[in-house]
């Protein structure tokens, strides 16, 4: 009895080569202390003197060219991207026949399944290593498709995304190896010979996995699902957002290259680039062969996927309304600076950016004495203004606006209340056509919940006076329960208030940051330590990376037979 | 900052008291060798001279009486059970208002959540201990509601069910404790002070859990979901099958007693007994407050739950068609005896009972020389006849027929093909009104796939001649893919055939037993070692007990704040 095990020496090398990194990730997951496998600084001291220039060159080689991707079923080319920096892209991707990709994926499944967890994880870690070798190219690809500023694109789109991918692979590995590959079962039988069985447990994948990427974080948000599915044995079809194809096209190219080198079918990972409006995600997500879907994007489409992709397990990260509750602070200036940075970073185009800031109408106690509501809201608005005063420095924080809908939303938001700080046009020193804006800060009445209780994605923040902190807590509960949230943040020097907000956060299922006044920001989460989303409120049904994110990507199939030897 | 932790010394005692048992279960899960916490022998040498009589007395005290259960919202009484043994039951259960139970459950949730994994698991293990103290009473309750024979009711309904419950609790504990309760996060910051954060991670439940029991295995099939949900912080409402209420009523009573003693709300576990046809499961399963559903029963209703209980994560074990593939054997007599026992046990009323036996029309090689197809099918039928020849001994294997639908099905199956062994009435020596039958064995043509490819739940087996083993493998694949299966079984002396069937089992996602000729039967699975169902074919979407069975019953909610000390 036995299962055919593919034996490819090169793969064993890959597993061994990356063993230390995997062990580091597993240890980090168990302790949740700081750990990182991929340096986040793009400094030449870390990556070498020519790394940035080489990456830039590699990125530019893609422009106005056919993207090289040798996969089945290509019917012409599509070039759907438009850069928020105004850079002409015209990168032409294969326009794939999804039926051909599905067939090729299923053909490749059995051998990949039988390769086993160690071999698959070794291949996945090698893919990460190759992606890391191209991290500057990826950073530029992220920057010029999403509008992120370069440093953020390098970190969130490169190093941190690699860490998040590694985290997902490690979590999948842990889940798969919770079950031993073989067991000997010996049951005592009184005075007679014991009953003896030999048992084999094999991880089997669910089927074809679909990853639906988003426009703003094509790598950070897509890689965890992609690698969790691949590591657990599922072929993966990547459907990028038409606005941010290149980072995922590079990802797929690298994955296919490594798979082929390691003796596996490259068709285990494929790209389905599409023109805007084609609706390929809906076709693929409802195909009976697709059994896993990972999605990041709008609540509307995420809800549609959950309702219609019934044959699949669907992991969604949708939108929410992130609330900040200001009760009191022992560092007023630090609070304002910290909030201003969070509001400004990538022009508020992060699912984790705070939006609705609740402040008691009677003002708050601070280290600088009592501050009136007006002083608090002025403090936040002024801190944003100071942070964005210089255009050349501001754009390195704000990046560019990802699409016109965000601009229109900023315009609409102006008329919702009293503008405390208007959004203004930023002129990028290097990209004349870049569309960049500073955050808009609007004062809303407490009864304007229809406005501040809804998501206004983009550089838009609301400051709302409330009767008192108890009322602020009630509003945080209501908004988060109804609309969901990725993050919440409280400022208070009163442990009783902290306890009450902590309890509210548990009740409505949202992660809580407390009194952030320094170099940690509510919109950032650290791989191996911070969970991203909870899966416990309407903003997401999954979390990066908890057990539920990986365990449903595979099943265990067992065989057993009598054994004469112990 | 901090979460209120309930501190109840008694609970810490419970956790400590059961620590050794929990550790044993965790070790067993990691090795999957034989392990059991609850002795399976009802012998007086194990349980004491008076245990059986005491249990019988306790069981009889329930008859023709109001079942004592002090829970909210009771509107009168229901007594829906009818014993397959013809024993007058008339046990009157509270007829609960589901709205009152849901409200009470949600009220009890926050304190149970905040009690934490160790305390919750300690309480769950204490409940198992108390159930074990009443294991004879439970065995009689299972016997006289389900129709199981006593020894089976004691084992499958008592000791083994306790082991399966313990397995689920241990798996939940492992999943919850994969994430540390607290972490210190220290990120180096060049020459400056490192960034330091203190982080807290709390397990939060999904909401109210619903357990929908079945008529045949009210404890074995319901306890894993019940205890997995409860251990992870979810209040549980138990909706028993109207035919098998008592075992779950005792379960709920014991759980409420332990919860109250430990200082928790007894409303964390409640019973909703109903009259036949009330449809309470559908009302509860689609309530927005219900976020977890565990179900065992028909495919039709399981599919309905999966389609309609959209707000919940639904774990189903439905029906399938279990196939036996006979290719060759080195122990013909052992094979026939083993199969006969599997077909006879509990009159084939197990979801794991084999139904469709595929044999090459040209016969097979055996240790006793070549056997024609007729000799093989005769061998199996004769072994069943021999096993059931003596009524008094037969009923200790067959038990009684759970309901009239099974009897009608036996009658219908007779006309499907050639009857090799007719089902006959068994007279129970102690229960004159017991409805007991021997298995029916029918020869079907290979083209009668509409018959042998569908589920015929009950004491009904089909033997089907196939062109050859390759064709048998194809049929196994087709049936299992289309209808699902809980088990599959192959007999072959040819390693190549074993490999091919193993591959088929992996492809269609069904557990495989190989060459069972001794004291292990395909319809039995051992807790801590054998998985029950795969979740990878239409017979079930979940498996007892893999990671996916427990990880989706909770989420992690995190809080973080700056820290000045490492």
Automatic annotation (TrEMBL), chains A, B:
Q: Which SUPFAM superfamilies does the entry link to?
A: ALDH-like (SSF53720)
Q: Which domain of life is it from?
A: Bacteria
Q: Which organism is it from?
A: Luedemannella flava
Keyword hit for S-adenosyl-L-methionine: no
Aldehyde dehydrogenase domain location: 96-510
Classification via Pfam families: Aldedh
Report the NCBIfam families cross-referenced here.
PaaN_2 (TIGR02288)
This one is known as: Phenylacetic acid degradation protein PaaN
Which keywords belong to this entry? Answer: NAD, Oxidoreductase
Q: Which InterPro entries match?
A: Ald_DH/histidinol_DH (IPR016161), Ald_DH_C (IPR016163), Ald_DH_N (IPR016162), Aldehyde_DH_dom (IPR015590), PaaN_2 (IPR011975), Proline_metab_enzyme (IPR050485)
The UniProt gene name for this protein comes to paaN
């Amino acid at each position: 009895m036995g299962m055919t095990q593919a034996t490819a020496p090169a793969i064993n090398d890959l597993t061994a080569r990356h063993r230390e990194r995997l062990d580091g990730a597993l240890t980090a997951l168990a302790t949740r202390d700081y750990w990182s496998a991929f340096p986040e600084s793009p400094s030449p001291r870390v990556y070498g003197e020519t790394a940035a220039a080489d990456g830039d060159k590699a990125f530019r080689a893609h422009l106005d060219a056919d993207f090289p991707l040798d996969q089945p079923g290509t019917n012409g080319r599509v070039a759907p991207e438009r850069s928020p920096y105004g850079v002409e892209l015209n990168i032409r991707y294969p326009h794939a026949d999804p039926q051909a990709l599905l067939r090729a994926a299923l053909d490749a499944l059995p051998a990949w399944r039988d390769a086993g967890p160690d071999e698959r994880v070794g291949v996945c870690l090698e893919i990460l290593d190759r992606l890391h070798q191209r991290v500057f190219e990826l950073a530029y690809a992220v920057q010029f498709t999403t509008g992120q500023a370069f440093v953020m694109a390098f970190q969130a789109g490169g190093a941190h995304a690699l860490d998040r991918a590694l985290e997902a692979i490690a979590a999948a590995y842990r889940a798969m190896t919770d079950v031993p590959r073989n067991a000997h079962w010996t049951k005592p039988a009184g005075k007679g010979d014991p009953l003896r069985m030999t048992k084999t447990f094999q991880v089997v994948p669910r089927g074809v996995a679909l990853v639906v990427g988003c426009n703003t974080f094509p790598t950070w948000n897509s890689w965890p699902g992609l690698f969790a599915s691949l590591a657990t044995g599922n072929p993966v079809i990547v459907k990028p957002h038409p606005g941010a194809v290149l980072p995922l096209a590079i990802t797929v190219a690298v994955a296919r290259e490594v798979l082929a080198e390691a003796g596996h079918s490259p068709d285990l990972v494929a790209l389905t680039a599409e023109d805007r409006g084609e609706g390929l995600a809906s076709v693929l997500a409802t195909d009976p062969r697709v059994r896993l879907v990972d999605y990041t994007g709008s609540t509307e489409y995420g809800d549609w996927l959950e309702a219609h992709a019934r044959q699949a397990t669907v992991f969604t990260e949708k939108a929410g309304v992130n609330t900040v509750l200001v009760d009191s602070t022992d560092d007023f200036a630090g609070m304002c600076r910290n909030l201003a940075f969070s509001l400004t970073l990538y022009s508020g185009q992060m699912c984790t950016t705070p939006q609705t800031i609740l402040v008691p109408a009677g003002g708050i106690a601070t280290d600088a004495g009592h501050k009136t509501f007006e002083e608090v809201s002025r403090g936040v608005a002024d801190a944003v203004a100071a942070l964005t005063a210089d255009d050349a420095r501001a754009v390195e924080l704000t990046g560019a606006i990802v699409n016109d809908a965000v601009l229109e939303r900023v315009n609409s938001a102006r008329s919702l209340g009293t503008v405390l700080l208007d959004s203004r046009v930023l002129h990028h020193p290097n990209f004349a056509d870049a569309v960049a804006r500073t955050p808009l800060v609007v004062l809303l009445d407490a009864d304007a919940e229809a406005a501040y209780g809804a998501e206004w994605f983009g550089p838009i923040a609301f400051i709302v006076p409330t009767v008192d902190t108890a009322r602020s807590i009630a509003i945080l509960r209501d908004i988060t329960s109804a609309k969901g949230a990725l993050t919440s943040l409280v400022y208070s020097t009163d442990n009783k208030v902290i306890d009450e907000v902590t309890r509210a956060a548990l009740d409505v299922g949202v992660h809580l940051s407390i009194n952030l006044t320094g170099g940690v920001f509510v919109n950032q989460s650290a791989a191996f330590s911070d969970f991203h989303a909870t899966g416990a409120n309407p903003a997401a049904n999954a979390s990066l990376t908890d057990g539920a994110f990986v365990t449903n990507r595979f099943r265990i199939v067992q065989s057993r037979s009598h054994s004469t030897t112990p």
